[in-house]
Amino acid sequence: MGQQSSGFVVEIASPRLGQFQAVPQKDPDESNREWRITVNPAVELNGSPRLRALIDRLYHHQKLLTAFDAKQILSALQCMDSTSELLLPILTVLSNATAFPSNQLLMSEFRLTNRVVDMLPDSKYWSRSTRVILLQCIANMAVSSDNVDIINKSLNHIVARLSSEDEMEVVVAMQALTNLSVNIRKEQISKFIPIIPHCLDRLWIRGEVNLNALRLLVNLSCCPDMVAHLLGNKSVAGLLRILDTDREEVLIRAITWILCTTSAVDALHLTYDRIAPHNLDPFHNPFHTLYYSLYGPKGREELEVQTKELTNHSNKDVASKSTRLLETLTNIPPFPAAGCHLNQL
User: Its topology with respect to the membrane (predicted)?
Assistant: First the structure.
Protein backbone atom coordinates (compact mmCIF):
# COMPACT_ATOMS: atom_id res chain seq x y z
CA MET A 1 0.00 0.00 0.00
CA GLY A 2 1.17 3.55 -0.67
CA GLN A 3 -0.13 6.58 1.18
CA GLN A 4 -0.84 9.87 -0.58
CA SER A 5 -0.86 13.16 1.32
CA SER A 6 -4.51 13.59 0.39
CA GLY A 7 -5.49 10.65 2.56
CA PHE A 8 -6.06 8.21 -0.28
CA VAL A 9 -4.29 4.86 -0.30
CA VAL A 10 -3.71 3.64 -3.84
CA GLU A 11 -2.77 0.08 -4.74
CA ILE A 12 -1.87 -1.03 -8.25
CA ALA A 13 -3.20 -4.54 -8.77
CA SER A 14 -1.35 -5.34 -12.00
CA PRO A 15 2.48 -5.57 -11.79
CA ARG A 16 2.86 -4.62 -15.48
CA LEU A 17 1.71 -1.08 -14.62
CA GLY A 18 4.48 -0.65 -12.07
CA GLN A 19 4.17 -0.23 -8.34
CA PHE A 20 2.27 2.39 -6.35
CA GLN A 21 1.51 4.67 -9.24
CA ALA A 22 -0.50 7.79 -8.59
CA VAL A 23 -3.89 7.60 -10.28
CA PRO A 24 -6.68 10.14 -10.65
CA GLN A 25 -8.70 10.46 -7.46
CA LYS A 26 -12.10 9.55 -8.79
CA ASP A 27 -14.64 6.84 -8.23
CA PRO A 28 -13.19 3.52 -9.39
CA ASP A 29 -14.59 2.03 -12.53
CA GLU A 30 -15.93 -1.40 -11.59
CA SER A 31 -15.14 -2.72 -15.05
CA ASN A 32 -11.49 -1.70 -14.71
CA ARG A 33 -9.78 -3.94 -12.16
CA GLU A 34 -6.31 -2.56 -12.82
CA TRP A 35 -6.48 -0.33 -9.76
CA ARG A 36 -8.54 0.48 -6.71
CA ILE A 37 -8.71 3.30 -4.14
CA THR A 38 -9.24 2.96 -0.39
CA VAL A 39 -10.11 6.10 1.53
CA ASN A 40 -8.63 6.68 4.97
CA PRO A 41 -10.78 9.51 6.38
CA ALA A 42 -8.66 9.84 9.51
CA VAL A 43 -5.61 11.03 7.58
CA GLU A 44 -7.72 13.51 5.69
CA LEU A 45 -9.37 14.78 8.86
CA ASN A 46 -6.26 15.12 11.00
CA GLY A 47 -5.00 18.70 10.93
CA SER A 48 -7.59 19.72 8.37
CA PRO A 49 -9.86 22.77 8.54
CA ARG A 50 -12.70 20.26 9.02
CA LEU A 51 -11.27 19.07 12.31
CA ARG A 52 -10.65 22.62 13.47
CA ALA A 53 -14.23 23.51 12.61
CA LEU A 54 -15.49 20.45 14.51
CA ILE A 55 -13.50 21.41 17.62
CA ASP A 56 -14.70 25.01 17.43
CA ARG A 57 -18.33 23.95 17.07
CA LEU A 58 -18.23 21.48 19.94
CA TYR A 59 -16.30 23.83 22.20
CA HIS A 60 -18.35 26.99 21.68
CA HIS A 61 -21.80 26.10 20.35
CA GLN A 62 -22.76 22.46 20.82
CA LYS A 63 -22.94 20.52 24.08
CA LEU A 64 -24.20 17.14 22.89
CA LEU A 65 -22.21 14.93 20.55
CA THR A 66 -23.70 13.16 17.58
CA ALA A 67 -22.68 9.73 16.34
CA PHE A 68 -20.93 11.41 13.40
CA ASP A 69 -19.00 13.70 15.78
CA ALA A 70 -17.87 10.71 17.83
CA LYS A 71 -16.68 8.86 14.73
CA GLN A 72 -14.69 11.87 13.54
CA ILE A 73 -13.04 12.40 16.93
CA LEU A 74 -12.16 8.71 17.20
CA SER A 75 -10.65 8.75 13.70
CA ALA A 76 -8.56 11.80 14.62
CA LEU A 77 -7.32 10.31 17.91
CA GLN A 78 -6.37 7.05 16.24
CA CYS A 79 -3.90 8.71 13.89
CA MET A 80 -3.02 11.95 15.67
CA ASP A 81 0.57 12.46 16.77
CA SER A 82 1.18 13.51 20.38
CA THR A 83 2.87 16.68 19.15
CA SER A 84 -0.16 17.80 17.14
CA GLU A 85 -1.40 21.23 18.12
CA LEU A 86 -4.97 19.93 17.89
CA LEU A 87 -4.55 17.15 20.47
CA LEU A 88 -5.00 19.46 23.47
CA PRO A 89 -8.19 21.15 22.18
CA ILE A 90 -9.78 17.88 21.09
CA LEU A 91 -9.13 16.30 24.51
CA THR A 92 -10.54 19.45 26.13
CA VAL A 93 -13.71 19.06 24.07
CA LEU A 94 -14.03 15.44 25.20
CA SER A 95 -13.39 16.33 28.83
CA ASN A 96 -16.11 18.98 28.74
CA ALA A 97 -18.50 16.65 26.93
CA THR A 98 -18.37 14.09 29.75
CA ALA A 99 -20.59 16.39 31.83
CA PHE A 100 -23.58 14.98 29.91
CA PRO A 101 -24.62 11.34 30.48
CA SER A 102 -25.74 10.95 26.86
CA ASN A 103 -22.24 11.93 25.72
CA GLN A 104 -20.72 9.36 28.06
CA LEU A 105 -22.90 6.65 26.51
CA LEU A 106 -21.98 7.73 23.01
CA MET A 107 -18.25 7.76 23.83
CA SER A 108 -18.52 4.26 25.24
CA GLU A 109 -20.55 2.99 22.26
CA PHE A 110 -18.03 4.28 19.73
CA ARG A 111 -15.04 3.18 21.86
CA LEU A 112 -13.82 6.71 22.45
CA THR A 113 -13.48 5.84 26.14
CA ASN A 114 -11.26 2.88 25.28
CA ARG A 115 -9.14 5.00 22.97
CA VAL A 116 -8.57 7.70 25.60
CA VAL A 117 -7.63 5.10 28.22
CA ASP A 118 -5.24 3.40 25.79
CA MET A 119 -3.41 6.71 25.34
CA LEU A 120 -2.59 7.06 29.06
CA PRO A 121 0.59 4.89 29.29
CA ASP A 122 2.43 6.86 26.57
CA SER A 123 1.15 10.24 27.76
CA LYS A 124 3.80 10.51 30.50
CA TYR A 125 6.15 11.76 27.76
CA TRP A 126 3.73 14.44 26.54
CA SER A 127 3.71 18.13 27.32
CA ARG A 128 2.40 19.01 30.77
CA SER A 129 -0.89 20.61 29.66
CA THR A 130 -1.83 17.77 27.28
CA ARG A 131 -0.83 15.15 29.85
CA VAL A 132 -3.02 16.72 32.52
CA ILE A 133 -6.08 17.20 30.28
CA LEU A 134 -5.94 13.54 29.21
CA LEU A 135 -5.92 12.51 32.87
CA GLN A 136 -8.78 14.94 33.58
CA CYS A 137 -10.75 13.43 30.71
CA ILE A 138 -10.28 9.96 32.24
CA ALA A 139 -11.25 11.26 35.70
CA ASN A 140 -14.46 12.70 34.25
CA MET A 141 -15.21 9.52 32.31
CA ALA A 142 -14.85 7.55 35.57
CA VAL A 143 -17.91 9.37 36.94
CA SER A 144 -20.03 7.04 34.80
CA SER A 145 -20.28 3.62 36.43
CA ASP A 146 -20.53 2.08 32.95
CA ASN A 147 -16.93 3.15 32.28
CA VAL A 148 -15.36 1.86 35.49
CA ASP A 149 -14.37 -1.57 34.12
CA ILE A 150 -12.71 0.06 31.10
CA ILE A 151 -10.80 2.64 33.15
CA ASN A 152 -9.79 0.18 35.87
CA LYS A 153 -7.44 -1.38 33.32
CA SER A 154 -5.30 1.76 33.64
CA LEU A 155 -5.47 1.87 37.45
CA ASN A 156 -1.72 1.23 37.90
CA HIS A 157 -0.86 4.09 35.55
CA ILE A 158 -3.19 6.48 37.41
CA VAL A 159 -1.71 5.48 40.78
CA ALA A 160 1.78 6.10 39.38
CA ARG A 161 0.80 9.72 38.65
CA LEU A 162 0.49 10.31 42.43
CA SER A 163 4.30 10.39 42.46
CA SER A 164 4.43 13.16 39.85
CA GLU A 165 6.32 16.34 40.69
CA ASP A 166 3.51 18.32 39.09
CA GLU A 167 0.93 19.18 41.75
CA MET A 168 -1.91 19.58 39.24
CA GLU A 169 -1.27 16.11 37.85
CA VAL A 170 -1.42 14.66 41.36
CA VAL A 171 -4.70 16.47 42.08
CA VAL A 172 -6.32 15.17 38.88
CA ALA A 173 -5.04 11.63 39.57
CA MET A 174 -6.69 11.82 43.00
CA GLN A 175 -9.96 12.90 41.38
CA ALA A 176 -9.80 9.92 39.03
CA LEU A 177 -9.05 7.51 41.88
CA THR A 178 -11.85 8.99 43.98
CA ASN A 179 -14.33 8.25 41.19
CA LEU A 180 -12.92 4.75 40.71
CA SER A 181 -12.98 3.89 44.43
CA VAL A 182 -16.73 4.24 44.94
CA ASN A 183 -17.06 0.44 44.85
CA ILE A 184 -13.75 -1.33 45.40
CA ARG A 185 -13.87 -5.03 44.60
CA LYS A 186 -11.88 -7.51 46.65
CA GLU A 187 -9.52 -8.34 43.79
CA GLN A 188 -8.70 -4.64 43.40
CA ILE A 189 -7.55 -4.05 46.97
CA SER A 190 -3.87 -4.68 46.22
CA LYS A 191 -3.98 -1.95 43.56
CA PHE A 192 -5.54 0.59 45.92
CA ILE A 193 -3.23 -0.08 48.90
CA PRO A 194 -0.33 2.04 47.47
CA ILE A 195 -2.71 5.02 47.37
CA ILE A 196 -3.02 5.23 51.17
CA PRO A 197 0.40 6.72 52.06
CA HIS A 198 0.02 9.31 49.28
CA CYS A 199 -3.32 10.40 50.74
CA LEU A 200 -2.00 10.63 54.29
CA ASP A 201 1.14 12.48 53.18
CA ARG A 202 -1.03 15.04 51.41
CA LEU A 203 -3.73 15.35 54.05
CA TRP A 204 -2.15 18.63 55.10
CA ILE A 205 -0.93 21.03 52.41
CA ARG A 206 0.59 24.29 53.62
CA GLY A 207 -1.34 24.16 56.89
CA GLU A 208 -4.70 23.45 55.23
CA VAL A 209 -6.63 20.19 54.98
CA ASN A 210 -6.40 18.82 51.44
CA LEU A 211 -9.98 18.12 50.41
CA ASN A 212 -8.92 15.91 47.49
CA ALA A 213 -6.97 13.58 49.78
CA LEU A 214 -9.80 13.56 52.31
CA ARG A 215 -12.41 12.63 49.70
CA LEU A 216 -10.31 9.68 48.60
CA LEU A 217 -9.72 8.57 52.20
CA VAL A 218 -13.49 8.54 52.78
CA ASN A 219 -13.99 6.20 49.83
CA LEU A 220 -11.15 3.92 50.92
CA SER A 221 -12.55 3.66 54.44
CA CYS A 222 -15.98 2.70 53.04
CA CYS A 223 -14.39 -0.55 51.85
CA PRO A 224 -14.09 -2.66 55.04
CA ASP A 225 -11.27 -4.79 53.61
CA MET A 226 -9.16 -1.66 53.14
CA VAL A 227 -9.43 -0.46 56.74
CA ALA A 228 -6.75 -2.72 58.28
CA HIS A 229 -4.28 -1.55 55.60
CA LEU A 230 -5.30 2.04 56.22
CA LEU A 231 -4.79 1.85 59.98
CA GLY A 232 -1.39 0.19 59.61
CA ASN A 233 0.01 3.19 57.74
CA LYS A 234 2.14 5.89 59.31
CA SER A 235 0.01 8.48 61.02
CA VAL A 236 -0.12 12.22 60.40
CA ALA A 237 1.15 14.77 62.91
CA GLY A 238 -1.77 16.63 64.45
CA LEU A 239 -4.23 14.28 62.76
CA LEU A 240 -7.31 15.26 64.77
CA ARG A 241 -6.92 18.91 63.88
CA ILE A 242 -8.95 18.03 60.80
CA LEU A 243 -12.01 18.18 63.12
CA ASP A 244 -11.09 21.70 64.24
CA THR A 245 -12.19 23.66 61.19
CA ASP A 246 -14.82 26.19 60.18
CA ARG A 247 -15.07 24.71 56.67
CA GLU A 248 -18.13 22.47 56.72
CA GLU A 249 -17.11 20.75 53.48
CA VAL A 250 -13.96 19.60 55.27
CA LEU A 251 -15.65 18.83 58.58
CA ILE A 252 -18.39 16.63 57.12
CA ARG A 253 -15.84 14.55 55.25
CA ALA A 254 -13.47 14.35 58.20
CA ILE A 255 -16.14 13.07 60.56
CA THR A 256 -17.42 10.70 57.85
CA TRP A 257 -13.92 9.28 57.32
CA ILE A 258 -13.35 8.62 61.03
CA LEU A 259 -16.88 7.24 61.47
CA CYS A 260 -16.53 4.82 58.52
CA THR A 261 -13.13 3.68 59.79
CA THR A 262 -14.37 3.21 63.35
CA SER A 263 -17.50 1.38 62.19
CA ALA A 264 -15.30 -1.08 60.26
CA VAL A 265 -13.05 -1.57 63.31
CA ASP A 266 -16.16 -2.35 65.36
CA ALA A 267 -17.86 -4.59 62.78
CA LEU A 268 -14.69 -6.58 61.96
CA HIS A 269 -13.45 -6.64 65.58
CA LEU A 270 -10.13 -5.16 64.54
CA THR A 271 -7.61 -4.98 67.35
CA TYR A 272 -3.98 -4.03 67.02
CA ASP A 273 -3.10 -7.73 66.63
CA ARG A 274 -5.05 -7.70 63.37
CA ILE A 275 -3.47 -4.40 62.29
CA ALA A 276 0.12 -5.42 63.12
CA PRO A 277 0.80 -7.37 59.88
CA HIS A 278 0.04 -4.18 57.95
CA ASN A 279 2.22 -1.91 60.09
CA LEU A 280 4.55 -0.12 57.67
CA ASP A 281 6.94 1.19 60.32
CA PRO A 282 10.43 -0.36 59.82
CA PHE A 283 10.49 -1.43 63.48
CA HIS A 284 6.78 -2.24 63.63
CA ASN A 285 6.29 0.36 66.34
CA PRO A 286 2.51 0.50 66.95
CA PHE A 287 2.73 4.06 68.27
CA HIS A 288 3.50 5.34 64.77
CA THR A 289 0.35 3.90 63.20
CA LEU A 290 -2.89 5.61 62.29
CA TYR A 291 -4.60 3.03 64.51
CA TYR A 292 -2.74 4.37 67.55
CA SER A 293 -3.44 8.01 66.64
CA LEU A 294 -7.17 7.29 66.67
CA TYR A 295 -7.59 4.61 69.32
CA GLY A 296 -4.50 4.92 71.53
CA PRO A 297 -5.14 6.41 75.01
CA LYS A 298 -4.25 10.02 74.17
CA GLY A 299 -5.70 10.05 70.68
CA ARG A 300 -8.93 8.39 71.76
CA GLU A 301 -9.45 10.84 74.60
CA GLU A 302 -8.93 13.79 72.24
CA LEU A 303 -11.22 12.22 69.64
CA GLU A 304 -14.00 11.71 72.19
CA VAL A 305 -13.74 15.30 73.47
CA GLN A 306 -13.86 16.82 69.98
CA THR A 307 -16.63 14.51 68.83
CA LYS A 308 -18.76 15.32 71.87
CA GLU A 309 -18.53 19.02 71.03
CA LEU A 310 -19.57 18.31 67.44
CA THR A 311 -22.78 16.55 68.55
CA ASN A 312 -24.17 20.06 69.05
CA HIS A 313 -23.02 21.36 65.66
CA SER A 314 -25.49 23.45 63.67
CA ASN A 315 -25.05 21.13 60.68
CA LYS A 316 -27.43 18.24 61.38
CA ASP A 317 -25.36 15.79 59.35
CA VAL A 318 -22.22 16.61 61.34
CA ALA A 319 -24.12 16.36 64.64
CA SER A 320 -25.76 13.04 63.70
CA LYS A 321 -22.52 11.42 62.55
CA SER A 322 -20.69 12.68 65.64
CA THR A 323 -23.33 11.06 67.88
CA ARG A 324 -22.95 7.77 66.00
CA LEU A 325 -19.18 7.99 66.27
CA LEU A 326 -19.34 8.44 70.04
CA GLU A 327 -21.62 5.41 70.34
CA THR A 328 -19.37 3.28 68.14
CA LEU A 329 -16.23 4.27 70.04
CA THR A 330 -17.64 2.64 73.19
CA ASN A 331 -17.36 -0.72 71.38
CA ILE A 332 -13.68 -0.31 70.53
CA PRO A 333 -11.46 -2.09 73.08
CA PRO A 334 -8.70 -0.09 74.80
CA PHE A 335 -5.31 -0.05 73.14
CA PRO A 336 -2.90 -2.72 74.55
CA ALA A 337 -0.67 -1.62 77.37
CA ALA A 338 2.79 -0.37 76.41
CA GLY A 339 5.23 -3.23 75.71
CA CYS A 340 2.66 -5.76 74.56
CA HIS A 341 3.73 -5.37 70.94
CA LEU A 342 7.27 -6.49 71.83
CA ASN A 343 5.98 -10.06 72.09
CA GLN A 344 5.48 -10.01 68.33
CA LEU A 345 9.07 -9.03 67.48
Answer: Single-pass membrane protein
